[in-house]
Amino acid sequence: MQTTGSTRRDLRERTRDTLRRLTGERDIWLATSHPEHGPHQVPLWFWWDGDAVWMCTGEKSATARNALAEPRVRLSLPDTFDVVLLRGDAECFPAREVPGEAADAFTAKFGWDPRTEEAPFLYIRVAPRSVLAWRGEAELRGRVILWEGEWVARDGHGGRG
Question: Where is the Pyridoxamine 5'-phosphate oxidase N-terminal domain (predicted)?
Answer without folding.
Answer: 24-134
